[in-house]
Design goal:
InterPro entries: YopX-like_C, YopX_protein
Protein name: YopX protein domain-containing protein
Radius of gyration: 18 Å
Mean pLDDT: 88
Organism: Oceanobacillus indicireducens
Number of helices: 3
Distance between the termini: 42 Å
Helix content: 10-25%
Pfam family, one: YopX
Length: about 150
């Protein structure tokens, strides 16, 4: 069975790392009146061994159940280097390419790699599975390391 794990960047200052790892996510939606007063429409929390910890919503990512070629866990929104391209790990509906003619032949829902640059002939989304995970390297995440992607678009 796949391990269910999520991570998020803590709102409050933490001792070791701002990254919090847990097993569940809670989203609180505020009324319009409260949102006007506070400037906050939502709050996000991750369930940890310490209890609920507030995190920044845009930082939340689910563990894919896979590790890269260096043994590092791969999470949604990680930046990876794969097949000569920088890719972001995403979750959702995506095209499944045919290796032979480099066209999408099907649609699937799950984790996938979204290339951030065009490197011919490979500039299509690829389903993230064990076969591809062993050939990629996690180099950061889009929350803390977006500059890594900007460097490669110049």
């Amino acid at each position: 069975m796949r391990e269910i794990k999520v991570r998020g960047y803590a709102v409050e200052e933490m001792i070791d790392s701002q990254w919090i790892y847990g097993t569940g996510v809670h989203k609180t939606t505020f009324t319009d009146e409260y949102a006007k007063e506070t400037g906050k429409k939502y709050e996000y929390f991750i369930w940890t061994e310490m209890g609920w910890v507030e995190v920044l919503g845009e930082s939340i990512g689910q563990y894919t159940g896979l590790k890269d070629k260096n043994g590092k866990e791969i999470y949604e929104n990680d930046i990876t280097y794969f097949g000569g391209a920088y890719c972001i790990v995403r979750f959702g509906e995506h095209g499944v390419p045919s290796i032979e003619d480099m066209e999408y032949v099907d649609m699937a829902t799950g984790f996938y790699l979204e290339p951030q640059e065009t490197i011919e002939p490979f500039n299509m989304t690829v389903p993230l599975n064990e076969r591809y995970a062993k050939d990629l390297v996690v180099i950061g995440n889009i929350f803390e390391h977006s500059h890594l992607l900007e460097q490669h678009h110049d």
